[in-house]
Amino acid sequence: MKRNTGKFWEKVSLEEMNRTQWESLCDGCGRCCLRKILFEDTRELVYTNVVCRYLDDQTCRCVSYKKRKSLNAECLVFSPENIYELCDMLPDTCAYRLVLEGRDLSEWHPLISGDPHSVHEAGVSIRGKVVSEEGISSDELEDYIVDWIRH
Q: Per residue in 58-77, pLDDT tens?
């Protein structure tokens, strides 16, 4: 595997990144597309293994990326403008969160490994671990809570 030594994320703030840099930080794990539950009484955020209907569970990428917010009103579209506000919704493994917190990217991150499949090979992606939200009501989400997401 070819290792990338360019590490722009250590030199450029999230707000200063161009579109290509910003998009390349996404490791393709698909975890941000998991349905989450925020228990209002305790403020605890938990993840389910229920994924947005627009996520391809093999590639872990949105099939309607450019139209995702208009197709799914619950879709969280992360940007330099809202990353500070929404950071708590991201798993601890997320590069956006890691960079924001001044931590290093994981060795399996494609920007480090040079391999876009390393996130899957490391077992970090949602590949093979999820079910589509189609046919699952919001009332049933608690039945799908998982603990394999670190947060």
A: 999 999 888 888 888 888 88
